[in-house]
Structures are given as C-alpha cells and as structure tokens.
Amino acid sequence: MLKSRIIPCLDVNKGRVVKGTNFVNLRDAGDPVEVAKIYDEQGADEVCFLDITASHENRDTIYDIVRKTAEVCFMPLTVGGGVSKIEHIRTLLLSGADKVSVNSAAVKDNNFVRYAADKYGSQCIVVAVDAKKNDAQNKWEVYTHGGRINTEIDVLHYVERIVSLGAGELLITSMDKDGTRSGFDNTLIKQITDIVNVPVIASGGVGNLQHLVDGIKLGHADAVLAASIFHFGEYTINEAKQYMKERGINVR
Amino acid sequence: MEIIGIIDYGSGNIHSATKAFENVAKDLKKEIKILRIHNAADIKPCDRIVLPGVGAFKDCKAGLINIDGLVPTLEKKILDEGAPFLGICVGMQLLADIGFEGETTPGFGWIPGVVDKIPATASLKIPHMGWNNIKFNRAHSIFNGLENKEETIVYFVHSYYFQVKKMEDLLGVCDYGSEITAVIGKDNIIGCQFHPEKSQKIGLKFIKNFINWSP
Question: Residue B129 and residue A252: Cβ atoms within 8 Å?
C-alpha cells in the first residue's frame, strides 16, 4: 500500500538554506547538501529544494547543489523556483532532480505544463500553487512571483485545468497559513484533493506533529511538507513518522 | 576488473543511477568501473548493462534508436552473450513487446508482455507516486538480503505498468488498487518498475545484488 510521505523543504537563497516566514524574514540554516544528507539519514521520503532567488540570479548555483545532493542522497528530490523554460527542467532532471516544480510560469502560460509533461512525462512535473483566501468573494486566489502578485484566478478552477494539461502532482501552499505555525489550511487542501486525481502535497503552516496528521486525515493530502519544525531540530523525521504511525497513518 | 555500462541516451535519471552504482561499487571487494554508454562501441567491453529510463515509452525508445547501431549491439550483448541486464522504470518497460503510452510503440520484446495504463478507479491517483512495499513472487538472487515483508518499501513513480504474459517472469509485485508489476526477470534479464537509485538503503541493496548476480 502506498505510504503517506513527509517532505522537508529547504528554501535556498544563493546556495544557502533559509526559511521564509510569510515570505519576508529569512533565517540561515546551512548548506543544502548537508541538510539533505541529514534528512536522507533520518528517512525523509523526499526532499524539496525551492530556489527562492532563482528568478533574479544565476541558475548555475542550484544545478550544482542538485548535482552534489544526488551524489550523496539516494532519495527522491524535487526542485523548484524560477523554472520558466523547458531548458531549466531538462538541466534540473539531468542534474539529478526527479521532479521539477513550476509555479509562476504555469500560471502565465498553462500550455507550458502541457509541453513539459509531454516532453518529460507528467510524473516529473509538479505544479506549485501559492493560494490565499479572498474572504469577500469566498474563494482562494492564485498568487505568483513568490506571493507578490495576485492573479485573482480561482485556485480550484486553476488546479483542475492544470491537471488536465498534464501536471503530475500539486504542491499547495496556503499563504494565509505559511509561517503561522497554526497548521495547514485543510479546508483548501480537502477541496483540492476532492477534485483532482493526482497526488497533492500540503504546505504552509506546520508548527507541530499533529498538523502533519491533520493534513493527511482532514486535508486528505498524499504528502505533507514542512520546513522550520525540521530545520531547527524541534522534531526529527523519525519522530514525525512515529507520531503519525501511532495515529493510524500509513507511513514508511 | 568488471565494467558496468549505463546507457546514456538523455534519460533524466542517468546522473542519479550512475552515482548510486558508483556508491555501491566502491564498497565491494571486486574492482568495478562504471561506464556511461554513449554509442554502440561503448557496449563491447561491458560485463553488465543498465538501462535507466524516465519519461514516455515512445520517447525513450526513440532515444535509443537514434543512437546508431546501439539496439542491435545491445541485443547481441544481452541475448547472445548473456550479459546481465537491469532495466529501470521505463528501461524495464521497454523490454515488453509493445507499449500503449501515447502512440502504440513496439518494445524490445525480450520479456513477453505489454505496457498499459494503471487501471484507474475513482479513489486511485495516477501517477502511482511514492513509497510502496513489494512482495516477492519467488526467490531470486536479486532479492538477497531483502525480506519478503511489509518493510521492504521502495520508490515508485509511473502511470503505466508492465503486464507480463507469463507468470514465471513476474518476480515481484506491489499493491496499488490491483497487483502492479514491480520486478520482472527472465534468464540474464531483470527489470524493476521502482527506482533503486532513489530507494535509499533497500534500493542500494538491490543494486548490489544485481552487481553480484551470476545468472
């Protein structure tokens, strides 16, 4: 039976690991290759690198990190951040990434996802969505460019469309929850998992281990992503798995 | 010295596969060289061959056919000379008679069967992505040191699967809605749907077994 996955996410800025709080305050947490190695040893199911400066800076740094990580970690690796050309996807995959996450470029041109999935297969194309609730209109809206631009696109419409074009997985980050340590937006995650037939990764808001359980049980997520609770040694991946197992979740 | 050739035809997992084999090889008693195969001539000195594969069936097939003389040389090496062969993911699927992903495309036909879409149900997500445990259908050297129980968990990511024609070629399965082919084998040929290069310790053990295997 397929296991629920725990994915520690490393935000990478100029080759160093950082964790954004509501995408503004950044704290340094070390060398991404070393951190990935620790998570590999702890039994993480996958590691995610998000290159938060990729849009503005030279991309070679992230390729180099991916290459070095793939030399020492024999686990699935997802890489995203500033991916806007087919060439970026190609280079990341050849460097050792298993999946590439696309965010703004997929919103700007939905067909980019179709083209990428045709070329490399849906299984390696993850579409990352930054979602924020619009209370007045009672819907979630898609944000791009690291959460700076509100496209006003309805998240639920968007995910349906992008999956029909070939997205193989969705990484859903609630901007309302990110950095709050108050748990995932499970209402959002549940509404998405109800309408799409691809795996969904819940992201944004994890502050304790119960939040991981809630993401699976309430949000019906296939995988849960967290950063700070793992980066600063509050919990190990093993502790998280043990906790989830005790609450009836099928983990590795 | 033994040479293990990994066919490099632009497949996504070539770097990871090479590094995993290098990692396993460095701890073994025998001296092993990992060689990337770029053309037909590179196949000649190899003692074992690995075919990684990520992406669509027809693209991978085209990638191999586009390398002049590669497929006939490979067939000679594997089918006539009997060199041990490991196909990973699409590299395993290509062993079938035919693949139905996108356009219908003929495979190598080394192991009878077809590659078709995983049967979808309302609750089953496609791709089959993540960690799943495998069950062994019969004993085989490729499973040495691995236990036939729940804890033998490996990493899968695929939407299509290999339907074998002969049950005797089916070495291992996983449960994903129905029984999905995880490992196939016939004579000197092994194929795995999962990614040993991404399956941490169990994956490295599987690679080690392949390197030590004398069919």
Answer: no
